[in-house]
Amino acid sequence: MTQKTLYYQLAAIALALLFITTIILVVGASPIEVIAAMWSGSFGTVGQFARVIATLAPLLLCASGLLFTFTAGLYNLGIEGQIAFGAIVSTFAIQLTQNALSPALVILLAILMGGVGGVLWGLLTGALNVYGRINEIFAGLGLNFVADGLALYLIFGPWKREGVASMSGTEPFSEALWLPTFGDTDASPIALLIAIVAVAITLITLQGTYFGLRLRAVGQNLRASYTLGIPSIRQLLSAFAICGGFAGVAGALQVLAVFHRLIPNISSGLGYLALLVAMLVGLNAWFILPVAFFFSALNIGSLQLPLDLNLESSLAGVIQGTLVLFVLLGRGVSESLRQAPKNPTS
Amino acid sequence: MRVELQNISKRFGSVQANDQVSLLVEAGTIHGLLGENGAGKSTLVKVLSGFISRDSGAVLLDEKSVEIKTPANAIAAGIGMLHQDPLDFPPLSVLDNFMVGKTGTGFIDRGRSLRQLQQLAAHFNFNLNGYETVNNLTVGERQQLELLRLLSLGVSTLILDEPTTGISASQKTALFEAVKQLAAQGKSIIFVSHKLEDVEELCDRVTVLRHGKVIGRAEIPCPDAVLIEMMFGRELALPLKPQTRQSEAALQLEKIRVDTDRLSLHLGDLTVYKGEVIGLAGLEGSGQELLLLLCAGLLHSASGQMVINGMEMTHKPYQEYLDRGIGYLPADRLKEGLVSGLSIHEHVALRTPARSFFVDWKETLKQTVQAIAIFNIRGKPNTPVERLSGGNQQRTQLALLPVPLNLLLMEHPTRGLDIESVLWVWQQLIARCQTGTTILFMSSDLDEIMRYSDRVIVFSGGQASRPIAVADLTVDRLGELIGGRLSDTMEPLAIS
């Protein structure tokens, strides 16, 4: 990143903050109070902080996966469906094996199968994109509806609770199959560990390996990378598969660590939130940790707003969206200024 | 309408596409704009039609200065352009396409538009069905539609950019009839082409461009030789190339046919020898690039056989061509050859055979520094390729070619390069030939073809001549052959 680009980014963030402050003032609240409320909402108690961590784990997984697809020049909006399908396959694995295997094995298998499910759903998006010539945005969004529909069908059909089926999901699993947590909180060390490993794999792969380099080439110029001898179709499909795999593991974690059953909308919109994280991070994978942490803190902290200040908790979404929009705008402006007449160095 | 362009200049990066170009087209005349590809014809007419903004110069319509900033401005000023590739909406109907761009009050009157379309079509003897989808039309019919659309918008100056490429003979006749009629009505026509016969048949006078400058003007009729001399220049070129041809065959083609939407290329039997340099001459789009893509493994032949270095290569996957040391240098370096956004170092790493999963950035950096020194690239390892000048991009492309290099296919290897780079590039290439590399290259610079080829193949409309030894050629004669007088002077390589 050049010096100038950095200035534009900082200016964009300043503008975004100004805009957010204005919005808060317009709805008749004090920005200071909002910050205080959100701070105490996310870091006030151990339990609240644990919830930030619990949200962070799947967010990191999904954002890491999305860095692969973004690097390959793909907008994988199908990530929500990949989370959901991972959760479904994971639930299926648990139901098949919970009476036969030891809990630890069931959990391990459930996480693995979540990944496998995500890979399959991701590859399906990829195949529609590469072979069916369907834009990956539409293929992904379409498959999101299919995965959601499948989850609903299972919850209200074959996997319905004893007695009456409901939106609250399938029968909860026995407590032995819940991922262990820090004390009596929502945060699971295993989920966090898996997420951090995923971030590390992403960083290393994108910056240090031939695979990562080829992915960047494919993302920047598909045609030239083919001429240079890069198997571009394989690269594109791999990006879909990896992103789907990470998302599927996130789905499994939602099942195992957060809800302890399959519910409709199991992804809780984390895939879309991860898209915002990935867009904000751009191709600088290093920023993924702080940005994802900040976003999950915003999400959890905002739950305090209705209680303390009588404000909608959706303010978190406004803040996140505004930040992303302004930063993208800053990038766009600096890009178009750079392309303005200027002789290339010879 | 009288159209006058005064001292138009336009620069793209390091390329001066138009250099103080002036053009005057009187109302009621057909004015040819002649020149090889890359001469600056398209840039000039795109300035006039609002697609490109000029750096300097003035546009005068009926002796009044006008500002044309967008295509919409141009249409409002009465200037319409018929593009080489029709700018239409293939999934929509002919009628919908016809109505696009009309200004109105918001509601459209399909019935009236249909009647207008039918009237115009009947007037010019075009056969267009308003309800047909444009997808199902031939290029010629799409062109007719576009012409009628522009006329219905009331243009009084019409620009035709290479309109005879890809259309049938009868469509061409109909188009020329229509254009002559329009000129007779007082419209001014600018006819952009590199085809001498078309210009001679249609135009009243021509302006010839070369390397972005006006080289000369002429009234038609005018002898071919004069026009060709203006188009290609005529410095006496002595073959400077040392003898590099060996006796071993490197490339053997048998009865090759390549089909694309626009053109079918038919080739008979052709043998190219190791170390030989073959220049492919011809107007752009005559089939040379198809031969290059075919040999590079980027295009499959519809029939026929290809053997490279004794290896049957017909329909083999592209990767195998790379493994066999076959390299391809596309003309559009930043679109097809290099990846913008990646640095020289990253390009070198991409081409290094992967020994492990991880990139050895230190080792590849060493190789990059070495390549930069050997290929004399003015850039640093971490310079993104799009920041390099054209010459240095070409040097980078050369640095990325497979080693050993058995066969090298090049499109316009020195287009847009300064003289120093041109000489340097060819010095490198000839050194490669001496070690046994075979080169096929296309170029619109006849001097380049004469100077560096051992033999020359001339292409015209998908047909190719037999390879002609450079010693048997002169620039003039080559120019004649290119001008489409292929059949009466020599036996073509093959006719299907």
Automatic annotation (TrEMBL), chain A:
Principal subcellular localization: membrane
GO molecular function, one term: transmembrane transporter activity
Highest taxon in the source lineage: Bacteria
Cited InterPro entries: ABC_transp_permease
CDD domains linked: TM_PBP1_transp_TpRbsC_like
Cellular component, GO annotation: plasma membrane
Compartment(s) where it occurs, according to its Swiss-Prot or TrEMBL record: Cell membrane
Record's keyword terms, sorted: Cell membrane, Membrane, Transmembrane, Transmembrane helix
Magnesium as UniProt keyword: no
TM spans (from-to): 6-28, 49-68, 74-94, 106-131, 137-156, 190-213, 233-259, 271-295
Protein name (record): ABC transporter permease
UniProtKB/TrEMBL annotation, chain B:
SMART domains xrefs: AAA
Superkingdom to which the source organism belongs: Bacteria
Boundaries of every ABC transporter domain copy: 3-236, 248-486
Keywords, ordered alphabetically: ATP-binding, Nucleotide-binding
Single GO term (MF): ATP binding
Protein name per its UniProtKB record: Sugar ABC transporter ATP-binding protein
